[in-house]
Amino acid sequence: MKFIEKHSRILRICHWFNFFFLFLMIWSGILIYWAHQAYIVVPENVAEQLGIDHRLAEGMGWHFFIMWPFALNGIVYVVYLALSGDWKFLFPDRQSFREVIPVVLHDLKLRSHAPPIRGKYNAAQRVAYFMVILMGLGSLLTGLAIYKPVQVGWLTALLGGYPFARFLHFILMLGFVFFFIIHVIQVLRAGWNNLRSMIAGYEIE
Prior knowledge:
Its main location: membrane. One of its GO terms (cellular component) is plasma membrane. This protein has helices spanning 9-33, 44-50, 56-84, 87-90, 94-107, 123-147, 153-158, 162-190, 192-199; strands at residues 3-5, 202-204. By secondary structure, the protein is mostly helical. Strands 1-2 form a two-stranded antiparallel ribbon.
């Protein structure tokens, strides 16, 4: 039995905090979005059963409160990647983009062999995790643009105006939901040893 260190303590803490904060951000965002009658896409009685109807003030309160620790956690994570050198394992290079499709086809059982893993992550993981970092930055910028459209009018204008910034913010949220679903499926496919590495920091061979 061999213990292999995979994830540092700081990385693991940031990962689980991010999971918690992102869940609250999406939940509170849904409360904000569906508080407007024009955007409710389910029958009102269903919305009532789900507890997501007419809770604008509550949703905004949670959203604007959680966005600060969410942003701080993201900053700590990015700074850690930069100072520790772990960004070399996470950020994709040109070869990563060439290998994404073969890796995805292998995961879908449409290809027998996948490109060899270089470092901690395969090509698809590198691209996906890098995109999540960019999505986090995009969410903060678009969120700020629609939160303070007068105070940061230049940012709102840069993002195409308030309606388009709001649209981008919503699309980024859908991107996070899609990533979360795929991420959980991949973790379940990889098994307990992989999940253990994000809890305890090591894998066993």
